[in-house]
Specification:
Distance between the termini of chain B: 43 Å
CATH class of chain C: Alpha Beta
Strand content of chain B: 25-35%
Chains: A alpha+beta (259), B alpha/beta (405), C alpha+beta (243)
Helix content of chain C: 25-40%
Helix content of chain B: 10-25%
CATH superfamily of chain C: Glutaredoxin
Distance between the termini of chain C: 87 Å
Oligomer: heterotrimer
């Protein structure tokens, strides 16, 4: 039996190496990472909701790339550049791709950007998944290098802020960033990412009035004041999301899928 | 000396007073003569010299009540304020890029003013060899100076360049309305938004980005001034300049070369690495110094974008003849140093009397000499040795030698 | 090395090679989690009525037509405008358990409200606002307008529950459509309408209060945000849309 065990272990190691080799050699395969459930404190919780409970889920380790999205578009030509009605995507949809149905000068392994929420949702749906919810995304993004709660690591917030502030205007290939405690990469240093519940933050565009319960506009509680005033990267992220509409297709915004 | 009732005799009092006066006069005469002996003679016929202060007071006479007119009356509704917006003439605002102020409004009627600002994020120099990722209005720190007239209807468009990574918006302190316009103008990269307001209050106001985290947006340079002239306008002066102080929080210390990151902890602790005028060390020194001539009246619109620090604003070598307290209608006179709160502004006016290199500083003095809060205004022209002489005399001083005599 | 071991290694190597080939260069099969078979993904896409099918295509051709409304005007000719909400062609279930898709509305102006059944504060006022709009319309206009009430509570608000809710308000009648759909299409519709909502647990939703008027082609022409708002702009827009 010992020999068999050794053999199986060797084969497992071979498979692991082979799998990793496949990923780096060709970004067309995205590993999905299993994330156990948990509780996440959102930056702007809704009144009466202290924490958001998240069930176990899987999430892509890296954002969806240009190459992957191109494959989707070829199968679903209604999502080709120029073919999408304005209600689903603004004029800048896939602006960085070529006009001949290919990627043009866009790097195949860079995260796909200039995609609207509708396009991202359709992609994930076509793959049998969905966009991650804001709570799921924030749970995964909270992790540091070792701890799933990055706040326990000294300098974590500063590191994340530096990653976000130092983003390049044209993002590089996925998979280059540090992997976090969940095994997920590129949450902060590449692009902003769509979440499923875009319109769920319920805060106004002016965060200074976030404490107002604007009863007329919102039923069930507007967003309370921010829970952690020291997490500037989170503020930047929430502020960015609060200005989004579903048809927005901007150069710094991509997505990854969950299931 | 006391009379029968125990009070001082009147005569004694008068006599004592006379004695004091005599002594005082004697001292004055003696003292004056000594001083006169020590000073070099000024040629009585030197045409370049004003011999008495009486000659100066008439040259720069102002109606010192100009702001008082604005202060005394309530916000008024004149006939021009009744005109429907659709019937107003349309004017495109002319802005001013620091250190140049926007030109005076020069209009005596109400208008519909169109203002457009673009937000960009760009790497620029904070000091020699030090680069920083600034977030800007109009590609500069401070953003451009906007200038409108009391009662104007302003249509404001904010454009966020597609290369930006962050959303931005604007809060203009001159606006009466939700967030000063912040909610109405939140724009993602590649978007623009428009809103309108009436400039109800005259004054000098800060504008800044108010997107979360607000401190970071301001700390990265997103501020400027909007000036609302009262209907009567401001008194014309010879020079107007536009200066805005700001504090910067970099990971590296002052002067550390390279591309510096914003340091959130330092900002929260209010531990500024740089305190500068107009967005960089040296923006107003050397070749960039402001200019004026002797005999001119200079007006500085000075804002303080913060984000944290107040400014003890002083110009070394001159006195502020008039200070529009906090950019409002009250004028103070003869002031050396004036406070500008973070998110506030002031207007200072001074008449230049002698040639000099005047130095603008935040008089919290280590900021001036160790963090960059220093600038120059070079005044050229004719000397006036009565108002100010250069060194008259210098010689060795030995306390021992004097005592021994 | 024993024969067994060699055989095992060879088989495994072959399997690995096959796996790498299938999930490799061919972009068409790409991006599925390793567990998913490419053909399964395509199958899901084709038959998932609540999701990707029909996006961006000419909606009229692809939806289930349900003509509960007695009045059936001629469909406007020409392609759907880019801003039309009818591009969202997936099928919903109405209070009678029938299938209904937004393109079915083409040719009639409509009023959209998103709510949920267990909402006790704002939603009754929202529904009342819709009723007020209906009451203010001239009869000829009223006949053409469809009021579409869509629930956030995709699990709790079953068609039967919607029917009860509507009947309780006297609104289970012609011209009023009460819909429930999948979480995805509900979020899609809300995103198009600019309605914000979130599930705060215990069957409660925090949401913004919006009434939207669409023209015959499904393009939004009026929007009331908040409660206690003057319905006049919505009424005017509906009258204009029927001219």
């Amino acid at each position: 039996m010992t020999r068999l065990t050794t053999t199986l272990l060797a084969l497992a190691a071979l498979a692991a190496v082979g799998g990793a080799g496949a990923e780096s050699a060709n970004a067309a395969v995205t590993t999905a990472v299993q994330v156990p459930g948990g509780e996440v404190v959102l930056l702007f919780p809704v009144e009466g909701e202290d924490v958001a409970r998240v069930e176990p889920f899987a999430i892509d380790a890296t954002p969806v790339t240009n190459a992957q999205f191109l494959a989707f578009v070829r199968e679903h030509p209604e999502w080709a550049k120029g073919a999408v009605p304005s209600v689903f995507a603004s004029d800048s949809y896939l602006a960085h791709w070529g006009d001949d149905g290919g990627l043009g000068t866009a790097h195949p392994d860079a995260p796909v950007t200039n995609v609207s929420w509708f396009a991202a949702a359709a992609y994930c749906e076509a793959r049998g998944g969905r966009l991650p919810t804001e709570a799921e995304w924030e749970l995964v993004a909270r992790a540091g290098r070792e701890e799933t709660d990055g706040y326990r690591e000294p300098g974590h917030r500063e590191r994340v802020l530096a990653l976000v502030s130092g983003r390049r205007a044209v993002p590089g290939p996925v998979g280059q960033g540090e992997v976090n405690a969940y095994g997920v990469r590129d949450l902060h240093g590449l692009v902003w990412e769509w979440v499923f519940d875009v319109g769920s933050a319920l805060n106004t565009a002016d965060s200074r009035s976030a404490g107002d319960r604007r009863l007329q506009l919102v039923c069930g509680g507007g967003s309370a004041n921010a829970t952690d005033t020291g997490d500037y990267a989170a503020f930047l992220r929430y502020a960015f999301r609060s200005g989004l509409t579903g048809d927005y297709a901007g150069g710094g915004l991509g997505f990854r899928c969950a299931s | 000396m006391r009379n029968t009732r125990g009070n001082l005799h009147v005569g004694a009092i008068v006599g004592a007073a006379a004695l004091v006066v005599t002594l005082a006069v004697a001292l004055a005469l003696l003292g004056g003569r000594d001083a006169a002996a020590a000073a070099p003679a000024v040629a009585a016929d030197d045409p370049h010299v004003q011999h008495t202060l009486a000659d100066t007071s008439g040259q720069h006479a102002h109606d010192l009540t100009i702001n008082a007119v604005w202060a005394e009356r309530a916000l008024r509704a004149d006939e021009e304020d009744q005109v429907p917006v659709a019937d107003l003439p349309v004017v495109v605002a002319e802005v001013g890029y620091a250190p140049n102020a926007a030109p005076p409004v020069n209009r005596d009627y109400r208008a519909h003013v169109q203002v457009t600002l673009e937000t960009t994020e760009e790497v620029m120099e904070l000091a020699d060899g030090v680069e920083y990722r600034f977030w800007t209005f109009g590609g500069s720190v401070p953003g451009p100076m906007i200038r409108v007239r009391e009662g104007d209807y302003v249509t404001f468009t904010l454009q966020n360049h597609p290369s930006s990574l962050m959303p931005h918006n604007i809060d203009l302190h001159a606006v009466s309305g939700q967030g000063g316009g912040a909610e109405a103008t939140l724009v993602s990269p590649g978007q623009q938004a428009t809103f309108a307001f009436t400039a109800l209050n005259p004054g000098v106001y800060v504008y800044h980005c108010a997107t979360a985290p607000v401190g970071m947006h301001i700390a990265n340079g997103m501020y400027g001034l909007i000036v609302v002239e009262p209907k009567e306008g401001f008194t014309p002066v010879d020079r107007e300049y536009y200066v805005v102080q700001g504090d910067f929080y970099t990971a590296g210390d002052f002067g550390e070369r390279g591309l510096q990151d914003f340091d959130m902890q330092r900002a929260i602790k209010e531990d500024a690495a740089y305190v500068v005028f107009n967005g960089r060390v040296g923006s107003l020194t050397g070749d960039n110094a402001l200019q004026a001539k002797v005999g001119e009246t200079v007006r500085l619109f000075v804002g303080n974008g913060g984000p944290n620090l107040s400014s003890s604003f002083h110009v070394i070598g001159d006195v502020f003849d008039r200070v529009w307290l906090e950019g409002g209608a009250m004028i103070n006179r003869d002031v050396q140093t004036t406070m500008i709160p973070a998110g506030g502004a002031v207007v200072v006016e001074f008449d230049t009397d002698v040639p000099a290199s005047l130095t603008l500083v935040d008089h919290a003095i280590f900021r001036a000499f160790n963090k960059g809060a220093i600038g120059s205004l070079v005044v050229t022209g004719e000397e006036d040795h009565v108002v100010f002489s250069d060194r008259i005399d210098i010689r060795p001083y030995d306390p021992e030698a004097t005592a021994g005599n | 090395m024993s024969r067994t071991l060699r055989a095992l290694l060879t088989t495994t190597a072959a399997a690995l090679a096959a796996l790498l080939a299938a999930c490799g260069e061919d972009g068409a099969a790409a991006s599925a989690p390793v567990a998913d078979h490419p053909s399964h993904v395509a199958h899901v896409a084709a038959t998932d009525a609540s999701g990707a099918a029909g996006h961006g295509q000419q909606a009229v051709a692809h939806s289930a037509h349900d003509h509960h409304a007695g009045h059936q005007p001629a469909l406007p000719a020409g392609p759907l405008p880019g801003a039309s909400l009818f591009h969202l062609a997936s099928a919903w279930t109405d209070q009678d358990g029938g299938a209904f898709a937004l393109p079915d509305l083409r040719g009639r102006p409509s009023v959209f409200v998103m709510f949920y059944g267990d909402c006790t504060t704002a939603c009754p006022l929202l529904v009342k606002a819709a009723e007020d709009i209906e009451a203010a319309l001239p009869a000829a206009v009223r006949e053409e307008v469809e009021f579409v009430m869509v629930t956030f509570a995709t699990a709790a608000d079953t068609p039967a529950k919607l029917k009860d809710y509507a009947a309780g308000k006297g609104l289970d009648r012609a011209g009023w459509r009460w819909l429930v759909g999948s979480p995805l299409q509900t979020r899609q519709l809300a995103t198009m309408l600019g309605v914000q909502y979130r599930d705060v647990g215990n069957g409660m939703f925090a949401h913004s209060n919006v009434v939207t008027v669409l023209d015959r082609d499904g393009v939004p022409v009026a929007r009331l945000e908040g409660l206690g708002v003057d319905p006049e702009p919505a009424v005017a827009a509906l009258v204009a849309a029927t001219e």
